[in-house]
Structures are given as structure tokens and as C-alpha cells.
Amino acid sequence: MDHAPWHVGELRAQALSGADHIPGGAGIRDFMPDQHRDFFASLPFMVAATLDETGAPMVTLLTGRPGFVASPDPTTLSIAAQSVDPAGRRLVAGAPIGLLGIQPDTRRRNRANGVVTAAGPDGLSVKVQQSFGNCPQYIHPRHVRVDRRAVIEVEPFQGLDARARKQVAAADTFFVATASGAGVENGGADVSHRGGPAGFVRVAGDVLTIPDYRGNRYFNTLGNLLLEPRAALLFVDFAKGELLQLQGIAEVAWDEHDLPGAERTWRFTVTGGWRGPAGLYA
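Given the sequence above, the corresponding C-alpha cells read:
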């Protein structure tokens, strides 16, 4: 990019972490390089973040056979998939979108954030405004397959019920959707991966305590949380092919190092969510 890509929340988070020396664009582009375009086209699923009617982040999965994502030019993604859950229904023309492409068997991942320019029965078209890669840290290798045969209504719930607590407590992976809030330069919706040993997310009532390990030092997620504390988490039970989407409020404890390997922690208070078919198995 010909200008620094950070918004005010990311700059503040970098300073709070002591990593405020990140130069320029640091690998963040306003277009997708060919290797990213080819990578997205090879995937059987993508993780997508957008906003609900109140502006709170939501997150879902988009699945298909490899090739369901195409890139006709370096700033466009065409995604031949729909999600019928509450987050998927918000992916309409003009909606902000954060996309994560992840290949668990190779531990490769790339992100693309932008705006939905068209949506319909055949899928989505996305104008990419930021494109960047992430390192393979904390990605658990697994071979993922897609099964789109089952169509089941999602089950909404409030708070964190016992079934959800059990799934979160056993997880080694989740995805987090955040947003910068309206009117923020270089802002928008974003989705990122988090991983660790099984049980790395601590559960107490409706509150999750999450270690924040050393990463790429961009602080896209935590920078967004400084501006908009609402977030959404997506857990996938790859054995059962089920997903759990949680919405709630996050707070970062910048000086808390109690969890093994964590540079800091953050707490997520669940207000509600839904469960339903993921269409993914491992």
C-alpha cells in the first residue's frame, strides 16, 4: 500500500504492547498477489465476518468444492457459496466483510478484508481493500473435508449453556470476528484464527478467558476491540461437523500473564449465539 494501513485502534494496541515499531504497510496490500488468489481458489471453505443490524460482529463459514472461490482480478473475489445462518444473511451488497482462507493440512492462511459488492443465489462478489498473509503459528494440522448435504436450522441460545461450555473447553481452535466501528479510516470487519493446546480457552460461567500468544504484531483483532468491544467467536467441532457461534463483549488485560505462554489475556463475556451444521469434518 502507498500509505500505512493501520487504524487508530491498531496503532494504540501496538503501542500498548510495546510493538509500536512496525514499519509502513508491513506486508498489507490493497490488492491480492497472484499466490493469494491461487490459494483462495484451492480452498474448500472460508471464514467470513460481517456485522449484525446493531453493528456487532458476526462470523460464519462459506463452503464448497475447491474452485468455489475465484479471483477475476487482483481486487475481486467471487464466492459461489451462501450461508443461511444469521451471519450469512447479513452478507448483502454494501456490507463490510472480513475473510480468512486457511488450509489446516499445510497450516497456511491468508486474509482479505473489504466490502460485498453483490450478493444473490449464486453467491457473493467482494471488493478487496486489504490483503495480507499470516504465519502458520498455532494452526493444528488436520485434513478437512466438506459435506454440504445436511441443511438444518440453527439453534439460538442466550448466555453460554452447558453444551456450549463443553465444546469450548475441548477446543484447540477458534475464529474471532471483530470490527473497528463506523467511520474509522482503514477500518472495517476482520476475522482471525486463534489456536493452542486443547483446553487453552478457560470457561467460567458465561466468561471465556483467552490467552493472547505472540503473533504477527499487527494487532488487528485487539486494535479493533479497543474501538469496538463487541466481537464474535466461531468454534467448529470437526468430529461432529457442528459449529458454535458466540457473540459478546471482550476486554483485554494487557498486563495479565497468568496463562502459560500468553503475552496478555482477554476475556469474552457471552451474550448469546447459535449452533448448527458446519459442513466441515476432519
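The chain has one domain: 8-281. Try to locate this feature in the C-alpha cell string yourself.
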